[in-house]
Amino acid sequence: MDQYDVAIIGSGPGGYVAAIRCAQLGMKTAIIEKYSTLGGTCLNVGCIPSKAMLDSSHHYEDATKHFEEHGIEIPGEIKVNLEKMIARKQSVVDQTTKGIEFLMDKNKITVYEGIGSFKDATHINIKKNDGKTEEIEAKNIIIATGSKPSTLPFITLDKERVITSTEALKLKEIPKHMIVIGGGVIGLELGQVYKRLGAEVTVVEYMDRIIPGMDAALSKELTKVMKKQKVKFALSHKVKSVERKGDQVIIKADDKKGQEVVFEGDYCLVAVGRKPYTDGLNADAAGVKFDERGKVIVDEHLKTSADNIYAIGDVIKGAMLAHKAEEEGTLVAEILAGQKPHIDYNLIPGVVYTWPEVAAVGKTEEELKEAGVEYKAGQFPMRALGRARASMDIDGFVKILADKKTDEVLGVHMIGARCADLIAEAVTAMEFRASAEDISRMSHAHPTYAEAVKEAALAATDNRALHV
Q1: Candidates 59, 66, 301, 446; catalytic one
Q2: Is 146 annotated as a binding residue?
Q3: Quick one: 18 exposed, middle or buried, by C-beta within 10 A (0-12, 13-18, 19+)?
Q4: How does pLDDT run across 284-297, given as a tens digit for each residue?
Q5: Is 186 annotated among the ligand-binding residues?
Q6: Binding site annotation covers 305?
Q7: Where are the annotated coiled coils located (predicted)?
């Protein structure tokens, strides 16, 4: 029987990063993955392929709507080749997953393909695709099995017309009318992809606003921008049935007045979040306990109820984000090596990769009000930037929330071009407990989108933004 210092079940961003860090720290490491490719949801059917589709569809939209204004004239009709677009997406996925294989080899990590299940707290059975079972032993084990799309109890996912994000990334045709159930990150990103390609898109959301977990100002601005892009929204609608009839899908929902509303389309994307994936893990055999939501219970060091077993990523509490899982994977590896790492969960940024992009870190205005914290806010519009006007990306703003007395930055919320990258500046500043004045006095290159961060900091510092 092969023996290891650490075995990791699941090869998503949390699992493979944990494996690499463990190996770097001198531990004999194994990783177990049930699929034939490494990388988990993120690399195979999540973050990476959805960004590939977002970029491809963005190019198409620019070519059909914006090139002429830039003085670029393309003779003839511009067409979408969806098959080729999806093939390119798959090539990006293939390159990325092969890159993870390379990293496993480079770091001398043993990879097992199959379903890993606990025999006890130190032994894992690996059921391979050919039906054979192999057993390994590990001093420490990390559960990194991730999540899968959630649904509603009354919805039957046929994966043809009533689909999840996985199927939405490999459709054979552009929908005529895609109805998206859920106004969160996944629904909005994939809804925007197919809207750009020519589909009619209607987003049906139970809450009274989209991206409800983010600052209300971001929700309001993104709604306004996406309505301008002709995406339709049915907010405060409670879906009660989804029925397929041939090539049509009929969705019935009650609006906020309790009146029934019927939506008809040829595809329904169910994007109501994700849930922990622990099927077949047999965690009870190792003494691992779960909460009422099916998440693995861990302490502040991410240790489970079993002394040598840890859990990271989507299977435990907190935001279901790839970069959160990566930080947790690194943290556990370093704890096992006797180090004292830390994660500030308040400083894990959240991003929506629509265009304009939406990004945030720290506290929202709603959270500060609820906690009774006295704060000041500074906001700066993207349209006031020369760089934004040059690129025609004028939607959005940057908002900085700072403590009224100390000026420490408590939250940064932004929507606009390249905000997914800009948010890193805010994370860095907040990690070092910067004040709004600190950011306002840093030189930002001109002309850039990042100048909006400086200007918002100026606005939060005695309301002295320069360019509005």
Answers
A1: 446
A2: yes
A3: buried
A4: 999 999 999 999 99
A5: yes
A6: no
A7: none
